[in-house]
Amino acid sequence: MGFFSSKKQQQKPTVQPAATMPKAAETPSSNDVIKTPTGNTSVIKETLKVKADIDGQGSLIIGGIFEGNIKIEDTVFIEKGARFSGTIKARKVKISGDFEGTINSTATEVTKSGRFQGAIHANKSFVDGYVNGTIYSADSVEISSNGIADIQECKSKQIKIVGKVNGKVVASELLEVVNGGSVEGEIITKGIRTEQGGSIIGNIQTYNEALHGENTLPQTDSSEEENLDIDPEVAKLINIKPEDMKKYAKKDEENSVKRISADDKNS
Questions:
Q1: 3-state class of 72 per DSSP?
Q2: Mean pLDDT in the chain?
Q3: pLDDT class for 110, splitting at 50, 70, 90?
Q4: Contact, 164 vs 181, CB < 8 A?
Q5: Do the Cβ atoms of 125 and 138 come closer than 8 Å?
Q6: Would you call 10 helix, strand, or coil by DSSP?
Q7: For a pLDDT cut of 90, what percent of the chain falls above it?
């Protein structure tokens, strides 16, 4: 059963039978979405503590403690028990240890043992561990059954929640909450698909491209933007001006609660 509230004058997001809704992103539900790199790979062993900036080709496995900035052509893997602080720009990033900082990638995965604090900018994101911060993912986000996200904002075209999410969720196409999944906070979405046993609690608004789309995303500091060698679609999702956030971050003054069961989604 889903629970959510909205202002009386706000139109609720489209809730249609599953057959007519946009198809949710098909992300494998496992803790090995991104394969651990093997070929052309450098390794920082668990006995090492490194403070440096790295720019190179191939892949990198970090098993020790690392502080700095990394730009790698292929995959960066933070092993279980390893600790990283800094920024990573890579094609793929897989986190099984502790991470504090910023990621720019095509695909990012936080595995069951992973703990992430900071900002993820990616095309696809998969969370099977714990995330605290922000997720801006151009194509899709999946929070798996083990995933817990305490977020300032999670924004993507399609968001699938099998685990637990606390915070603001913005889905420009579809928010899917399956059996066992829960989201609590401010929800902005174009369409919703819920299964019985899924829970949605909080203020809800219909996604509006003019208010919530790319036109409201400001330019970053020029010196920073020139250094972001990432997909243009990802770059659009990096920041939001406070004045733009106010347009759709208003709280429900009347605290009215509208309860809709999963069976009502076909109405």
A1: strand
A2: 78
A3: very high
A4: yes
A5: no
A6: coil
A7: 62
CA 180 – CA 177 distance, rounded (Å): 8
What's the CA gap between 84 and 45, in Å, rounded? 13
What gap in Å lies between CA 219 and CA 20, rounded to an integer?
36
Looking at the DSSP bridge assignments, the partners of residue 93 are 76, 108
Per-residue model confidence (pLDDT) at position 13 = 58
Strands 115-127 and 98-110: parallel
DSSP 96: S
Q: What pLDDT, in 10s, does the model give residues 139-195? A: 999 999 999 999 999 999 999 999 999 999 999 999 999 999 999 999 999 999 999
- Mean pLDDT over 7-22 rounds to 44
Tell me the three-class secondary structure of 161-215, residue by residue: ECCEEEEEEEEEEEEEECCCCEEEEEEEECEEEECCCCEEEEEEEECCHHHHCHH
In the block, residue with structure tokens 């900018």: 121
Strand runs (DSSP E) across the chain, as ranges?
Answer: 2-4, 41-44, 49-51, 54-56, 59-62, 65-72, 75-78, 83-95, 98-110, 115-127, 130-143, 148-161, 164-177, 182-189, 192-194, 199-206, 258-260
